[in-house]
Write the structure tokens for this entry.
Amino acid sequence: MKSLSEIDTVSKRSSRAAGYSWGIAEEVGKNIRLLEIFGLPGIKNLNDFLNCKKNIKLENLNFITEDNSSNNSQYCPVIAGVNFLDQIKILENLNEIKFKNIAYPMLFLPFVSRASEIVGKRIILKLDKKKFLMNFNNCIHSNFFKKEIIKIAESVSIKILKNEDSFAENEWKELYKLSEETFVEESESLKNSGAGAGLTDND
Amino acid sequence: MNISLRDPNIVMKLSRLGSFHQSRLSFLRSFLKEFKDWDYKRDLFELNEKGYGTAVFSFKKKNRVYSLICFANELDENERSDRVIATKWDTAFTLFDGVPTKLDIERLKNEVPKQEFGRLSYKELTLSRANKSVRVFNHVVESLSNGVQPDKELLAKVGYLYRTTAVYGSGKFGLADRFRIKDREEIYGPFRLEMMLVYLVRQFTFDQVNHVAKNRNPKKAVNLDPEICKSLGIGNSTGLGMAPFIVNHPTLLNNWIYAREVSLKKIREIKNAAIAESDLFKDCLKKSIKNIKSWNTESEYQIKKIKSLLKDLNQFILFLDNEFNFNQEYPFNKLYQHLEENYQEECVEYVVSMMMEPYENIVAPLIKEMSSEEDKYFNIPTERTVSELKIIIENKYSEILKIDFEKKENNLNFWFISKNKEEPRLANRFDENGSNLEQPLAVARDIKKLYENLILSKNNLTIAMFLSINADLRHVVRRAFIVEKFPYSEIQDNTIGSEIVPIDMLRLKLSFFGALKFDPRSDKWLRICMFQGAPLPEQLKNYDEHWVYN
């Protein structure tokens, strides 16, 4: 079994060899490590991408907007990903961010996962029919478990979720009420000797 | 009195870093302190009469066990090489997490001796190999088998029976990744398990030499005197592989240097030194002179440094004995100021290390802060602006910005990874091929280039937008934001200039390991000795923490 350190180093060096700058290659190294930690096919997709890269007409997406369409070519997943990560603080207030035609979208995914940690919000990423819920870069929930290479995602959508409760208020109240059963009623004399007792609070 | 931390522009210069010496902060010393209460055991010792076979040594505390598995094999004299490019060694070792089963040992017997070409697993923590100093080993076997102790003078000259080359850890060749073990309290502090491996290898060398002597002449043979064992360490040949490490791990480098600088600051801030403290400082300093006098090297460069150090130290000791009064306020601050004004930086840093000896209370808490969670600082704060980044560079790299990289001598070399052994190397970019595959270790040059590009950009531009059109500078943008938080994370020097002495980078790291007697064999590799004078495993429970000077 390869260690994560080996995965990071080899991914970084091979990305540099494929023409990315050292700084971007470092990002790829960390990302492939992340994918493999989450049980997603990082090495498989990176290897295929770097081998096929010369034969694909790739477009660099430098400025991310609400709607990013590349009709005649495919977006490079690494450059689109780096810029998505870098620009996340500007993008986080958009309702939905759409992309058309991202090559090897599994390589784009870890940038979105890291962005979830940076903004402190969950993010839903859809790659055609595959769904991924990014939880602050701690874990990923998905309906995709195959160890396969995804050459392209024609339709990509990103929704940055608001930090909201996942439960109804009455459910919370019900649970809170139950938790109160661990409390003890305080006597009057104890109430009078608590912190701040005996002082005038208008001083 | 509030003493400022020393300026990184002084401390982080290569000549200063290359003058560092071991101290209480050094990893081999903090390893011994941490593991002194652990139970040491020799679990297996199946060697033939020539000393070849398998052995296992362990440290155990409660449910935790670390086991060193040793494989000693016959090696043809023509095949013995300390070069990292060697493929066979006298012995090969791995530190196993727990108690190995027979199956584990069988598996490892096929892999560990192959070193870089073998595959380890998450159950193994560190990996190394060592070759005999044939001259010394044979002499010791010969003497012991004849019932006499070996020639102490010869042993003192070499200092070890075996020398290791690389010691690998942290996921190399399939070894356990650091994340699997980083929360174990006993290994807070860098390189603990690498130190454990070397320490147990040292014990293996003594047990093996006794075993071979005994088998050669069972009736007459004696064991190597424990006092002689104590005086021996483990040699190590270290090449450029270590140099990029300190550039590639900026927050870790910062934490090492920061611990040293905070120690010095706190010691300088001591208003009144107790007599016992000043006496201990003087005692360690005076005793340590013998380590310098027994420091053998054929390197002209090092001989010059040793001579100058010895001269400075003798003069400093005279000053201490005859002119300096410890019975005054802030004595260590006054001593430090005197050092900076009157002595070479090698001597200054030597005495700084010595000043830590009496102050366990200051140093010990800092040791636990010397590791780093590097991934925490990987993301670039891209919402910041060009103007902010410019200010950081002007403040943190002021000396670097003065270097003219258009001049050939400032851009003479390049760092690369060799194809045959995947090891870092340094070469002249105008004489050798391959500078197009340069590693990102020319930080000074790239920082300067970053600054020049920033000057041409709008001040309120965000770093996100700057990076979208300057992807080639991303690696140094990351570093600049790291140095903003970690002042000692960057070498404040040119690592590709004609003046670079790469072994300065090695010495910095090796001093933190706790190595003694740096012996440069060229400007690109050196030999050192580790654990020379250290207590033996059976002596650990009650040992003198200042053993380095005894």
Summary: The longest strand of chain A covers residues 152-160.
